Inverse folding.
């Protein structure tokens, strides 16, 4: 692509030289392009119709013309024929006739299976002001989903397809993208004083009059993104073969060490536990405050984060975002799942690894927040976020991103999936789990798997004998936890320790009645009743502790609604724990997973502090009078 | 120097307030137990047979989150009780402050509880109105500062960076703090005037208070700062001591907090008394 940025008119003009190979056994007689910027063309686009979370950006639209558009001027095929006159906008998702985010271009001649064709596209786009994920504000520009981008042609047998067809969704407010792998060779012409951060690696840069031309190349990527500003500063760090670059505004060099440290931690961890990062560069953009609408996003070899002096250093915002967005290099960039149709496959897996990485390097209890005496771990907060959602059962992971119309998108796709994976890891063991995930990554990198492909890797990698030993039904688990909305909730209903009564009545013969009712010496009848309150059936570890310190443990398969442990002996049960090592991250209530005969007094430190807080609150009222 | 002398003089009279201080403390304790007991009993009932709170030494916010997730709905009806008691306590606080005003203005060297409470009746409605005016003034200042900040631009999309935003917010906070302090000082001297001159109307007391405060602005401000520094030192000392105590030693931390509360009540009385002393010295 040859691109020129006009900062005065807020326009980009481009020429794309598109080379595409038909991957299917079908004849392909049309092309479909995403024109994402048309989502911001007017208030009638599907994106604007279902937006409801971007109110703070409305000022740009209502008070100034911050609207945008994308226009394909011409698309010339190899016979020098312009195909645009026959093109039309289509709305495959909702039939919204005003939505212009998908352009269908009929071809004059069908493309044969395996045939490679070349097109030349001339296009232009007006850049949106302060719009979601992309656009400009002041001198800061961020270009994501900015060029007319070819959809993914899915051959028969790929994902859920029974026959080859284009997969090119409209732009929705909820959910992200899906792209085909390719090589991007992009020349960017920008004002001379502008510094450019981009996907891929820089091949050359040269000054041409008052402008500067950058040429970037990115191989085996599903998208291409860039950003520029005259205020950008740049720092670099090398990790093995990867050149890590950080672009930031003046004053934010204080966050550089945090950025680089976290990026290297994430690279090391993912290389060790999932697979190697194959690219030569990793570019991090720390947007200025007025560009925060672009923060916290992932693009091939380029990620954006957010940092702020307003937050104490104990708030691990840059670390969390860098780790999260970096993991997306694996799940959605290299393993290029469909973010619109199956958002859990990238967001859920990413959230899961985010918790693992941050908990490892920043502590399980402090990896999210460690300030003002308050400590909270990343994975802990993930659980909290899910269970505090208004309706944790509102949907399941069979929903497309745009189908979460009444909420639950992030809670289900991000949080619940991460909890599901943590539970799976707990049940299978981390070593086994990591082995399966490595297989999944190696099998599907640079391809487009669907949810069933993910499950299939587990089915093929975990043998029956292990599942039988664990009393674990893998298929049922995915049905319940991934594609179901049932809750996992176990409880210890009761513990009883009673002296064993001697047998009484007509025991051996009706001629003699045994009336002795004294307890038998030193014999105690101990009983524990366990309940499954939720619908989810998973095996759960049970540990019973006796007064002597002895412990007995077993695995309850969780199939029946209740079960019991019963013993006659000289020892009393003092404590029962369900899932003591917290394998079942999906468990709703971990408080009632322990029952002790002797009450704990640990609650007093909380209640006394609460009382003191109330005292001072009441005393503060005196200040007002 | 007059400010410092006034402050020291107030401390010399502290013994006079021993019963009111003790009574105000006990009243706070009673209200606290009324408000907090339903919560603490509920919390105990749900948590004391589980070991989840034993997992870590300090406070486990995560487990509080788990508690709220699973049992939080049970707390909602208790919130109603909480707000009722807070409103009632505010009315009581107005009464208590009226009584403190009476005690401070009284020339007696000993304030029995009976006269302390009877004295409160003298000023109740005037202090009540003064409290409302003060609250309204604070809200007006807050709104004024907020709109001023909006006018100079605190929209995150309009500022250049977080340094600019931080600077503007700091300026806003400084202005809010300064104006709040001035209104607080005005309130203190308005109380003194209500007591000394038996002002029937709040507006009159406030006007005279304003004239006095701005006439002796530096001295009155200095006295406020002395009182504030003493209070800050007290809180600082409390935090230092509390950090020395193991978080599980809840009895010790609770007792230390009671000492702080007693001293806070004392400081409040000292503040008003020192204002009275200063007023007398300056207007003498």
């Amino acid at each position: 692509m040859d691109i020129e940025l006009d900062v005065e008119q807020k326009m980009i003009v481009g020429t794309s030289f598109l080379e595409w190979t038909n991957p299917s056994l079908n004849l392909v007689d049309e092309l479909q392009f995403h024109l994402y910027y048309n989502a911001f063309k007017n208030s009638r686009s599907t994106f604007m119709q279902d937006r409801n979370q971007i109110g703070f950006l409305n000022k740009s639209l209502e008070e100034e013309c911050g609207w945008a558009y994308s226009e394909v001027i011409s698309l010339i095929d190899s016979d020098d024929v312009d195909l645009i006159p026959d093109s039309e906008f289509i709305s495959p998702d909702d039939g919204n006739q005003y939505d212009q985010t998908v352009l269908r271009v009929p071809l004059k001649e069908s493309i044969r299976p395996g045939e490679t064709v070349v097109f030349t596209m001339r296009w232009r786009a007006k850049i949106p002001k302060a719009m979601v994920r992309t656009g400009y504000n002041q001198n800061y520009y961020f270009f994501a989903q900015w060029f007319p981008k070819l959809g993914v042609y899915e051959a028969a047998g790929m994902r859920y397809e029974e026959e080859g067809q284009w997969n090119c969704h409209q732009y929705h407010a909820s959910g992200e993208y899906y792209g085909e792998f390719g090589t991007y060779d992009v020349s960017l012409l920008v004002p001379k004083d502008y510094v450019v951060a981009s996907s891929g690696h820089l091949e050359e840069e040269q000054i041409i009059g008052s402008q500067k031309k950058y040429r970037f190349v990115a191989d085996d990527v599903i998208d291409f993104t860039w950003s520029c500003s005259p205020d950008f500063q740049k720092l670099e760090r090398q990790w093995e073969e990867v050149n890590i670059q950080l672009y930031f505004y003046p004053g934010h060099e204080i966050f550089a060490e945090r950025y680089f440290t976290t990026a290297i931690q994430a690279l090391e961890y993912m290389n060790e536990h999932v697979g190697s990062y194959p690219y030569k560069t990793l570019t991090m953009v720390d947007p200025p405050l007025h560009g925060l609408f672009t923060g916290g996003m992932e693009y091939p070899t380029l990620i954006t984060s957010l940092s702020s002096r307003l937050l104490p250093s104990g708030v691990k915002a840059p670390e969390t975002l860098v780790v999260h967005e970096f993991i997306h290099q694996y799940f959605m960039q290299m393993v290029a799942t469909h973010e619109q149709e199956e958002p859990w496959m990238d967001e859920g897996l990413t959230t899961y690894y985010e918790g693992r990485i941050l908990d490892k390097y920043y502590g399980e209890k402090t990896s999210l927040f460690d300030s003002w005496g308050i400590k909270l771990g990343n994975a802990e907060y993930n659980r909290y976020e899910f269970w505090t959602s208004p309706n944790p059962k509102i949907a399941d992971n069979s929903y497309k991103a745009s189908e979460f119309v009444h909420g639950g998108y992030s809670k289900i796709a991000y949080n619940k999936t991460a909890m599901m994976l943590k539970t799976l890891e707990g049940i299978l063991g981390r070593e086994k789990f990591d082995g399966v995930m490595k297989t999944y990554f190696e099998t599907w990198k640079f391809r487009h798997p669907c949810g069933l492909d993910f499950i299939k890797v587990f089915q093929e990698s975990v043998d029956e004998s292990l599942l039988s030993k664990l009393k674990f039904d893998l298929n049922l688990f995915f049905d319940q936890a991934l594609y179901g909305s049932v809750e996992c909730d176990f409880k210890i209903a009761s513990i009883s320790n009673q002296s064993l009564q001697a047998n009484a009545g007509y025991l051996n013969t009706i001629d003699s009645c045994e009336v002795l009712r004294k307890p038998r010496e030193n014999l105690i009848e101990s009983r524990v009743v366990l309940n499954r309150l939720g619908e989810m059936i998973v095996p759960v570890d049970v540990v019973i502790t006796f007064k002597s310190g002895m412990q007995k443990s077993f695995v309850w398969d969780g199939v029946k609604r209740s079960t019991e442990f019963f013993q006659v002996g000289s020892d009393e049960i003092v404590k029962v724990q369900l899932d003591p090592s917290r394998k079942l991250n999906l468990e709703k209530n971990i408080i009632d997973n322990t029952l002790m005969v002797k009450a704990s007094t640990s609650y007093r430190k909380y209640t006394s502090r609460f009382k003191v807080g109330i005292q001072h609150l009441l005393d503060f009222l005196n200040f007002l009078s | 120097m007059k400010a410092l002398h006034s402050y020291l003089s107030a401390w010399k009279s502290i013994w006079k307030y021993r019963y009111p201080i003790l009574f105000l403390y006990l009243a706070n304790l009673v209200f606290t137990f009324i408000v907090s007991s339903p919560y603490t009993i509920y919390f105990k009932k749900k948590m004391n047979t589980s070991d989840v709170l034993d997992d870590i030494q300090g406070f486990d916010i995560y487990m509080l989150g788990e508690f709220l997730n699973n049992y939080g709905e049970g707390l909602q009806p208790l919130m109603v009780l909480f707000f009722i008691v807070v409103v009632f306590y505010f009315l009581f606080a107005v009464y208590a402050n009226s009584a403190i005003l009476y005690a401070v203005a009284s020339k007696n060297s000993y304030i029995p509880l009976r006269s302390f409470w009877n004295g409160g009746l003298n000023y109740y409605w005037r202090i009540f109105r003064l409290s409302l005016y003060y609250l309204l003034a604070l809200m007006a200042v807050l709104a004024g500062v907020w709109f001023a900040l909006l006018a100079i631009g605190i929209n995150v999309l309009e500022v250049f960076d977080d340094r600019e935003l931080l600077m503007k917010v700091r300026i806003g906070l400084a202005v809010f703090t300064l104006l709040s302090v001035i209104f607080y000082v005005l309130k203190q001297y308005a109380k003194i005037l209500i007591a000394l001159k038996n002002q029937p109307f709040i507006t009159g007391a406030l006007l005279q208070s304003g004239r006095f405060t701005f006439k002796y602005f530096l001295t009155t401000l200095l006295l406020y700062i002395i009182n504030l520094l003493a209070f800050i030192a007290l809180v600082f000392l409390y935090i230092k001591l509390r950090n020395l105590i193991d978080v599980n030693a809840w009895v010790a931390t609770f007792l230390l907090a009671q000492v702080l509360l007693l001293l806070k009540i004392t400081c409040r009385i000292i503040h008003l008394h020192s204002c009275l002393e200063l007023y007398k010295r300056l207007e003498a």
User: Anything to note?
Assistant: Chain A is about 25% helix and 30% strand.
